[in-house]
């Protein structure tokens, strides 16, 4: 599932390029999320997680590398479908964070709400299985700080994804106990 999610994001980015080259449209504006559009176009709360900044691939590459690292750790524990559910719910949770805390007219894009959901899940699982939470806590703090210190980063999506991922992971724990 990790590779599938990466493939969807990479494929969407390729479509962004093709759309940009051959049409007057920008898929970021068609699929990105702004709170003001929630009532009329709620699907954007999910589609925004698969669109990344253009034309530089840096945004896509950073998110996909992190998705790869954490996906490869979490997917064996969760299974493919739970992994997909965790990621997708965290993307939507990131959009809820933007809805509650962001500017209604600012468009947000990127998989980082889903990525932060993986961070939140990793924190919950490491704590539950009595591993040190120091490394994941440091990673979360650094990445949250990055969102506050660098312009153009939707810290609201990071926070929403983090909280959602932690909640989803906590709800998954009873099933994991039986599975392990």
From TrEMBL:
<dbReference type="InterPro" id="IPR050925">
    <property type="entry name" value="Rhomboid_protease_S54"/>
</dbReference>
<keyword id="KW-0812">Transmembrane</keyword>
<dbReference type="Pfam" id="PF01694">
    <property type="entry name" value="Rhomboid"/>
</dbReference>
<feature type="transmembrane region" description="Helical">
    <location>
        <begin position="105"/>
        <end position="126"/>
    </location>
</feature>
<keyword id="KW-0472">Membrane</keyword>
<dbReference type="InterPro" id="IPR035952">
    <property type="entry name" value="Rhomboid-like_sf"/>
</dbReference>
<feature type="transmembrane region" description="Helical">
    <location>
        <begin position="157"/>
        <end position="176"/>
    </location>
</feature>
<dbReference type="InterPro" id="IPR022764">
    <property type="entry name" value="Peptidase_S54_rhomboid_dom"/>
</dbReference>
<dbReference type="GO" id="GO:0004252">
    <property type="term" value="F:serine-type endopeptidase activity"/>
</dbReference>
<keyword id="KW-0645">Protease</keyword>
<feature type="transmembrane region" description="Helical">
    <location>
        <begin position="133"/>
        <end position="151"/>
    </location>
</feature>
<dbReference type="GO" id="GO:0016020">
    <property type="term" value="C:membrane"/>
</dbReference>
<keyword id="KW-0378">Hydrolase</keyword>
<comment type="similarity">
    <text>Belongs to the peptidase S54 family.</text>
</comment>
<keyword id="KW-1133">Transmembrane helix</keyword>
<feature type="transmembrane region" description="Helical">
    <location>
        <begin position="80"/>
        <end position="99"/>
    </location>
</feature>
<dbReference type="GO" id="GO:0006508">
    <property type="term" value="P:proteolysis"/>
</dbReference>
<feature type="transmembrane region" description="Helical">
    <location>
        <begin position="45"/>
        <end position="68"/>
    </location>
</feature>
<feature type="domain" description="Peptidase S54 rhomboid">
    <location>
        <begin position="40"/>
        <end position="174"/>
    </location>
</feature>
<protein>
    <submittedName>
        <fullName>Rhomboid family intramembrane serine protease</fullName>
    </submittedName>
</protein>
